[in-house]
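Hi, here's the filled form for the chain we discussed.

Project: internal
Contact: R.S.
Residues: 385
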Amino acid sequence: MGAPKYVLLSYDQQAEFEGEEGYEETWALCEDTEGLFADPRPPARGTYELLGCTAEGELAVALAGARAEGSAPLGFLTLEILDKRGTGVGEWYLTDVRLLGDRPCARDLTRRDVTVEGTEPDYNPFDYPQCPPLSPGYRLLGEEGETWGACRDLAHVREERPEPVDPPVRLLGCTPHGALREALDAGEEDLGHAKLLRVDASGRPVQSAAEGELTAWIPSARGRGLVDLTLEPWSERPPRAALEVWELWGRGRPAETGLWAGCSTGGREFWLRTARENHPRGRPDQSSGATYHLYGRHIIDHPGFFCALGEAVNGPGGYFGWGLDALDDCLRGRWGAAPPITLVWHDAQVARSSLGVTPHTGYRPPSFEELLVFLTERRVDVRLA
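And the returned structure, exactly as it came back:
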């Protein structure tokens, strides 16, 4: 048997929810997996009706285009929720919007009902932009906050789509232990709930991989006494980017900085998740006033900035936030450093040229200048080098 990459544990959802310790039993050591990784599906595009619209600006232009061509691009659309006084009290977004057509509004012939197709981004604060009592509806805004008109209501045209089914995960070359070994020997069909962990070469857990139901087993072609198990996950599967990260952590916790630099942007995002899960808990912060060196030669995207910052503060494989909210929490202490601190940012020109943005009303990562302001406001003395 080769060195196991995964360990399978018994799983008790109630015990985990209640924070019990020591209830997990090792059920198997597994050489590898098949079908474990799956990238999240892109958000489904939906059809929406903006009811009782008045149109101006780009919305009026798109309406004319749709009448002539059958449809027209509109781009990023914000629905600003209005209270009874017409004051904005929240925002809801559609991205990559295309205008499909319009018709007279049955309740007010001076207005139009407009049909659009678009995608609800995952940073929308709620599933539906509910208006408060006596609200006149929504103000429609463009990407840079320009007014495009207004509408009185929003309807989501629901379409019946079959739910895609993912294949089960196969755990290959497994050596069964404990209760699982007994269940297999007894020929039991109900094998129970299990949790799969990725481990490094020394057997130390790196990260949770999946949770689910063990549904079947067969003798493994990888060796005598080994079995291949079938796991039906109920948890989200790790993205394909996890493969490149786990290979780097598979030799053990990183002993040198910058290993993340060879990863894709998705790999760097997953690196941050792995670094957070492996952050040592309970270790005291270094004394206030310390100086840290941020090596910025590979900061070409926002995940790269946080990978480099985590290692600047907490060493190879270190974690110190994955976004501004998380960084703000880390700067409150108990994550390795507490302000006031000095951050010497080497090769800062790389990030200055790479982290540019085009402002709009939806979510976007911070620019280089916004990062500097954010850090300075939290008593981090940033020195560009």
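Let me know if anything looks off before we file it.
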